[in-house]
## 1
Amino acid sequence: MATKSKLALLGGPKAVTSDAGGVFKWPIITKEDEDAVLEVLRRGGMSDLDVTMQFEKEFAVWQGMKHVLGFINGTAALQGAMFGCKLGVGDEIISPSVTYWATALPCFALGATVVFAEVDPTTLCLDPKDIEHRITPRTKAIVVVHYLGHPADMDPIMAIARKHRLKVIEDVSHAQGGLYKGRKVGTFGDVAAMSLMSGKSLAIGEAGILATNDLEIYERAVALGHYERFGEEITTESLKPFVGIPMGYKWRMHQLSSAVGRVQLKYYDVRCKEIRKSMNYFWDLMEGVPGLRAHRTPPGSNSNMGGWYAPHGLYRPEELGGLSVTRFAQAVSEEGSMCSAGVNAPLHLHAIFNTCDIYGHGKPTRIAHSDRDLRQPRGSLPLSESICSRTYAIPWFKKYRPEIIQEHANAFRKAAENYKELLAEDPGNPPTLGGWHFFTHR
Ligand SMILES: *Cc1c(COP(=O)(O)O)cnc(C)c1O
């Protein structure tokens, strides 16, 4: 058994020897995608709306939401969702600190700001127990992320939001098509916004999308950045005087993306099912390995991990003699698998949320319109600040190839089971772990 042999890092044989073939390839592009793109390209329809509107219609049926709006990217879709929820000058959102920056940062452009909350160490999503004490009279919305494919715990979050009359924005960029207790993520809050860029699990090119059942939210998002739709069809009274010119942005989805989107969406559920089978198989093989825990919904529950975007594992160094995740990840990589330490670095520690005066207010944008200094220094969110030392990336299998998945699981198992041999030359974790952008999409 490979796990008994010497670690590759210390001169032993590698656990992974097979060629991965197409196991990691994503998105899966066929002639159907190519033909769809060429059709738009050859007729010069890149800036038209016909294919995008067709895609929106199909997406609305698939997502189970009434109003769907395509965007140039997920960042713009999130800003549209925030504006849709009437976020404005002086308002506050509550968002997790451990996420990609676009979950929170677009609120600055609206004059609003963010108060970060902790993530739950098991789900890695916004911790419902850390929300309520952060609510002030200025809080307008909670932004939830279904982080790395894991659904956030929506029942308690929605209960808190309803009690305090807050809007809920779901950032579904990591979890398109995923389920929470049998219901699709992105259908719980007032509005969902998500990225569909090429690295995500629903990968259609540079693109984003917004979905809501609230017509006013939809029309406000239209008003901000979709000029051709901001016409006589608008029904929201407060918007009517301004139809014709949008409120400052141009956010139409590129039709080469929506053409790909229509094809990708058709096969998405089937392809995700194979991803889930593969990833669950990987974690089943890892059952009982010391120090390593799955980041997944409980098997047999009615929740799932969607397309399992950028999968990660939970790390318990206390079970491995304190071995740093950095050293562990290095050992796994030397075995021929892929592993890196950490997830997103916590946003509250970055200068953009602390000292940067983006718009020339004469003070940091984070507190430009605040009634108090709500910045959160190092030490204020201890769990978020330590989460990178307790997480690691694992391979993202798109195809169910048991022999290949076994080799990769062996690489992880081998590094963990031989942890004592790694302790001697463990340099420990560097002062900062995790990235502001993200992992290599593979
Ligand atoms: C990718 C991502 C976004 C931004 O989407 P883009 O399409 O890259 O603009 C927003 N939120 C999260 C959580 C993301 O991972």
## 2
Amino acid sequence: MSESYIETKCIHEGYEPGNGEPRQIPICQSTTFKYDTSDEMGMLFDLEKEGYFYTRLQNPTNDAVAAKIASLEGGVAGMLTSSGQAANFFAVFNICEAGDHIIASSSIYGGTYNLFTVTMKKMGIECTIVDQNLPEEELDKYFKQNTKALFGETITNPTVNVLDIEKFAHLAHKHGVPLIVDNTFATPVNCQPIKWGADIVTHSTTKYMDGHAATVGGCIVDSGNFDWLAHAEKFPGLTTPDDSYHGVVYAERFGKAAYITKATVQLMRDLGSIQSPQNAFYLNLGLESLPVRMRQHCNNALKVAKYLEANDKVAWVNYPDLESSESHELFKKYLNGASCGVLCFGLKGTRKQAEIFMDSLKLADIETHVADSKTCLLHPASHTHRQMTDEQLKEAGVSPDLIRFSVGLENADDIIADLEQAFKLI
Ligand SMILES: *Cc1c(COP(=O)(O)O)cnc(C)c1O
């Protein structure tokens, strides 16, 4: 169905029922799968035959949903994970080991920043954090012999700036490494990073894809475009024999599906951050309505952003769709006419007044979450990013007064009325 529009793909990709079979993706809530002969089972363990044997590695419900997301992103294969954190960890760890180095934008999600700079450091993988807006010649200098990946977010969380994906892809490829892009905020409805040169795309499906604050999940999609064998010395995990499978060489045996196959049969087997089939089912329900919901999120967010921009109690607003946004040119290039439902702003006045304002909102809840059907807000400096020093916050572009506002699916006039009553109190 590669020629269809995204609305159609969101409904139909990944699963096609046969005659008399369930129309909706069945939930295969089973840990294991039965075989008639021990020989058949043995071939599955040797990767000589395709098939299901244990849900920690693969499950039909998860595979159908992963295939749908892969199709939406224009990739060759996908893998669901238990969370977005697991997706980003696996995406990097699939091609890195102790002694390696990665480069990531300073504007990435706080959880990913921690993962890369604290936890993975303990595993011997070093991360250099860079300002994604630096010119290519400046960014060039951060690449080293042992650099294995470049990482950024299409729209950064929480600062909602747009990544220059082509610049990052060009840089990564010049140095013989893949570009990994976390496309959580834009979703494939508004941007498909693979079209712009990204090699691997990740998602926290917890956000818009699920869309209802119901299930935590993640996904990795492989474009199939990166030539691992051409850079064989950098990626031994993909280009030399894996002893745990009788010496299989993933890049030789699995071609364009090498990266996802390795992530599935090696990392999932050993680390086991699988998504439950039940959650994959919920995720699929979210995917079916994703384009419709994204349209409403974005229309609402633009109205709210314009309202805030015109309000004299607001010091600044950032929303890529606004002409005033520093990301507006990149928005016009990379986003499909709309960005996402998240915006950020700062208030004039004291920290205390900002707290009164946030606490006075009735419709908008104070939540850690973002990007679901209910309008919510968060103050990163005192919540998600509280582990960061002022210096790190500044580096990540998170000013202490930044309020992240996630515009839901309610009527925009009700959201604005809620803001209006809270502004009256400060
Ligand atoms: C939330 C988020 C994550 C982490 O995802 P979880 O599903 O919460 O583990 C990663 N990247 C981005 C951009 C996010 O917004």
## 3
Amino acid sequence: MNPNQPPPSSPPTQELTPAELKRLSRRSFLWAGAGVAGSLSLLSLFNHKAKDDGTGIKQVFRSAHLTNEALAQSLLSGRLAPEFPASLAVEPRNNYHGATPEIDQAAWRLQHGELSLSLDDLKTLPEVSLTTELKCVEGWSAIVTWTGCRFADFAKKYPPLPGSKYVALRSEPAGFEDEWYYVGLDIESALHPQTLLAWSMNGQPLTAEHGAPLRLAIPIKYGIKNIKLITHLSYETERPRDYWADSGYDFYAGL
Ligand SMILES: Nc1nc2c(c(=O)[nH]1)N[C@H]1C(S)=C(S)[C@@H](COP(=O)(O)O)O[C@H]1N2
Ligand SMILES: [Mo]
């Protein structure tokens, strides 16, 4: 730690019993941390004085945010995202960070190590539909019905090697290099029962705007983790690169 930086807030876990911890959402926990640090005005003074670390996140907040990553992991176990009646589902905004890649759908394959899987290969796995909320960090959200297979069922058929701790998902459509996107997931989140490799949205095959032919629907995490048009899937022992984590967002991006 840079000695010129103000001290981070003291670890808030000291003050809380596990039962109390469970009752706190990640966000309210941040505020609890701020309370422990002293006062909000003190924190904003720190923030004002703290140097930007180059990711756009001030050091003081980064330390709080690292504590929260650990917390996100402990809160994850056993939590389910809310589900809704399918009648509430709507079409979400198209949130490609650039142009929508229009690819040859018939030629698409999911690369998994040596395997090159077609959508029909994936459709042999049990089909599941879930109506959940897609929440974008930009502030909008939409209730959407996703249909596909559970990532957990994919992992049963194509098991990770022992010691795998992460999943790397990449969207690298040929000819759309400017739109390439990549997401890293801790393996527990990938295997969460609500995490789907989805091929349909609101009862229709995915459109190009929403990631045809295959995307991730992971309602325990923000929209940034819901990678569209997946072309590569691998299990990893080290934390993989992640498009938004590379820009300073929380790698876990949990809700
Ligand atoms: N390949 C790819 N996947 C992506 C993105 C992207 O830019 N490229 N944006 C993400 C973001 S920020 C959000 S909020 C969701 C939005 O999904 P939608 O466009 O189907 O609404 O897609 C995610 N998946
Ligand atoms: Mo987003």
